[in-house]
Amino acid sequence: MLLRLLASLDAPSSGSLTWRGQAVTRRNILAYRRAVAYVAQRPAMFDGSVEDNLRIPYTLAIYRDARYDPAAVETLLEAAGRDARFLAKSADELSGGEAQITALIRVLQLRPAVLLLDEPTAALDPDSAATVEAMVNSWFEASPAAAFAWISHNPSQAQRVGNRTLHMEAGRVQERVQERVQEIKPT
Are strands 164-169 and 147-151 parallel, antiparallel or unpaired? Predict the structure, then answer.
């Protein structure tokens, strides 16, 4: 729920959402949503191929000035351990891991400033989870001004992917600052 609020997909029951010192309102919501991207635990896939799904954002008004970049997608596919043949795969034939990787590529190609990841590996096998972790790590390292929030119920994953951990127990939030435990590399 917290990430959906931060993504401005749900309205807060009180208070307001601010971005760079300004309240997020109807006037600036499109700029906010372009900067802050949400990746759900269960990604939405649309009819058609993987490539069709990757092109969907460019049909939205918010990205009317942007163009689908096959070279950028190829780089992301490579980071995901996939080749160009993956683009032709039908979205309804994707495994859970492949759908999550497609959803992540769909977001990363848009170059957001902030990624909100809502348990993106919860239903994935260990290899797919490692691929997702490595892709986010690569994006983060290549984007010096970027930030991400990753919800995980897996303590070892939280140590691998984050350097600041907020832990909720019995409705109370506790912060744990830590060094990154290990470098994430795809298997």
Answer: unpaired
